[in-house]
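Can't paste images in this forum, so I'm doing it all in text. The chain is below; anyone willing to post the predicted structure tokens underneath?
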Amino acid sequence: DAQEAAFDSLERYLTSRLHTRIFAPGIDARQHDADLRMRIAKLQFITPDHLDIPALHRNPEAWSLGVAALNTMALKTTPIEKLDCILEACKHLYSAP
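Text version of the structure:
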């Protein structure tokens, strides 16, 4: 409904404007984030073969679009935007023919 959409827009606006103040990470958090990014980078070799996805359900284009959607999460600032990236990745993977 319109009120919920207005609240979502307001949350998005405020969170994006206040992101550095709200989520200002300390040195420990930044190091943890860097370590996590390194671990994720090391997992880029994973393919549908590694996940035991049957050949019948594999779609390289959907896989690429899902990976791209997840890679954009780092650019998002609000929790809802990050969840939208996950939802988009799932839609790509589950809507594949």
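The mean pLDDT is 84. DSSP finds four helices and no strands in the chain.
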